[in-house]
Amino acid sequence: MSRTRIRDPQAVPVVGTDAHLPALEPERLQPDTLRRRFGSATSHEPELPGDTDDPGRRLAPASVLVPLVQRPQGLQVLLTRRTDHLRDHAGQISFPGGRAEPDDADAVAAALREAEEEIGLPRAAVDVIGALPPYTTITDYVVTPVVALVQPPFELRLDAFEVAEAFEVPLQFLMTPAHHRRHEFDWQGRRRQFLSMPWHGPDAAGMPREYFIWGATAAMLRNLYRFLAG
After folding, report:
1. What's 67's domain CATH number?
2. Were both Cys, which of 60, 69, 140, 177 would link to 76 (CB 3.0–4.6 Å)?
3. Is residue 112 part of a domain?
4. Which residues are CB-contacts of 25 (< 8 A; sequence separation ≥ 6)?
5. Is residue 33 a part of any domain in this protein?
6. Containing structural domain, residue 68
7. pLDDT at position 145, please?
8. Does the residue 102 lie in any domain?
């Protein structure tokens, strides 16, 4: 996509969903099945490589953790809602993560450090099972999504400056393309598109809320769907 930043994504028209694609079967979303899929993975081209078509951009390395929490009802994706005052991604739904630091040994180390700093997720609870291809963002990062299984119990401690809330969404919901909505808009004479995956669930106080998952987070989840479906 171009470098335009969408200020109100929910106002961008929905042109359809991907209900023609099959939902992933529950057996594909079991912890042992995921371990085997990542363990046997060869090179994989993502469906959505990023938000830019400018090969000349200088990109900084970053990582996010895709935490799959092992609950009795099935795997849940742990996501965060950013605080409203941040310069980038204010109020948006995202994975815990951020820019790589010089002391990080690799993308996995960066993702684990960021998750611990942002939401207090203890590394002892995290079992990294693999990574997805990098995703380039409009904010000039090349992001490695690190996928991990998370074993409860654990207690989160949110960084109040960066994270307003942490919540969980069923992996089965996110791996059902009927929930993947396509938005389209015109920018500089070209037709642009992005995905959203709105989720209605309880907030930290138990009150019903819509979480509008879109942009890079939705794109990386779509890439996870394609990888697991392969």
Report:
1. 3.90.79.10
2. 69
3. yes
4. none
5. yes
6. 26-39+58-214
7. 98
8. yes
> Whats the size of the chain, residue-wise?
230
SS3 of the chain: the string is CCCCCCCCHHHCCEEEECCCCCCCCHHHHCHHHHHHHHHCCCCCCCCCCECCCCCCCCCEEEEEEEEEEEECCEEEEEEEEECCCCCCCCCCEECCEEECCCCCCCHHHHHHHHHHHHHCCCHHHEEEEEECCCEECCCCEEEEEEEEEECCCCCCCCCCCCEEEEEEEEHHHHCCHHHCEEEEEEECCEEEEEEECCEEEECCCCCEEEECCEHHHHHHHHHHHHHHHC
Predicted confidence (pLDDT) per residue in 176-209, tens digit: 999 999 999 987 778 889 999 999 998 878 899 9
Residue that is written with structure tokens 């099972």 in the block: 129
Please tell me the pTM assigned to this model: 0.94
Q: Quick: pLDDT tens for 71-128.
A: 999 999 999 999 975 555 557 999 999 999 999 999 999 999 999 999 999 999 999 9
